Amino acid sequence: MRSSLPVVVLSAFLFILFAGHAGAEPNAVENIERQIRIKAEQGDASAQTDLGVMYASGNGVIQDDKQAAFWFRKAAEQGYAKSQLILGLMYNEGQGGVAQDYSQAVSLFRKAAEQGLATAQYNLGVMYARGEGVTQDNEQAVAWYRKAAEQGEAIAQNNLGAMYANGEGVAQDEKQAAIWYRKAAEQGLPTAQNNLGAMYVKGEGVVQNDKQAAEWYCKAAEQGDAEAQNNLGVMYANGKGVAQDEKQAVFWFRKAADQNEAMAQLNLGQMYFNGTGVPQDYAQAYIWTDLAAAQGLEKAVKARDSLANVLTPAQIEEGQKLVREWVATHP
């Protein structure tokens, strides 16, 4: 089960802010930019933030990271929480014309978090959990995750669930973990859906139920979550929670394997080795097992070494060539 999610990515947050102007006609965008700039130059923090977003995205103006940072900083210095968050993300990632500085990121996240901005509260929790820019402190991480989670921030709900599941910064409580995973899962967060599925498989915090597990894995897998795709493949392979279907197992293992999910690569390799759901193919078995082994998966290393005993040197050489080709097309 994955424990938690990282800090919100700057580009994703800017995309959400930019969406409000997306699709506007060029003349309309130009007019919007003019009006925003007038207000920004008059000291309107909201307009300064909007102008920063326009420079960051290149919408209505020539894209310019330094100008974006300039306007975000103007608004942040006025105490505008949204710009404090954005500027914090810039420092966290070392993007947008500023050097990476975790301490500055924490300072800005805290300013926005103390104003109640849920995404900033979540990010501050992540910084405490990781010990980046601040002394590592799981109890503080839990406190900030909780503030954001109680405002409905799905990623914070997932991470709070993970803290309860792992007993980090709070007494271990599988029921509380399941409660918070469910809140995030019901908002469509694939990581939480996968985590909740795992709780149902193990009967941790919920009554064990393979059917429910498969349903949650499926929701996450259909959104492209690689770990959930592998987990759903396992359910199909074993006939747990779904009718056994080896071809469906291969389908989902392949989806995850193509995303470089090591366990899925090993599982797909084993399907090829056994001729389960696909025609038996030792070369394909070697390719997928070797890819998993290259990621340090111990079971895959042993399986690859066993495979080497049944393949000819020519088959191994061909397999290694195909592995190199796969790696070259999957950066």
UniProtKB/TrEMBL annotation:
Protein name: Sel1 domain protein repeat-containing protein
Keywords: Signal
A Pfam cross-reference name: Sel1
Signal sequence residues: 1-24
Keyword Transcription: no
Entry-linked SUPFAM superfamilies: HCP-like (SSF81901)
Recorded superkingdom: Bacteria
InterPro entries, sorted: Sel1-like, Sel1_AlgK, TPR-like_helical_dom_sf
Gene3D superfamilies per record: Tetratricopeptide repeat domain
Taxonomic lineage of the native organism: Bacteria, Pseudomonadati, Pseudomonadota, Gammaproteobacteria, Methylococcales
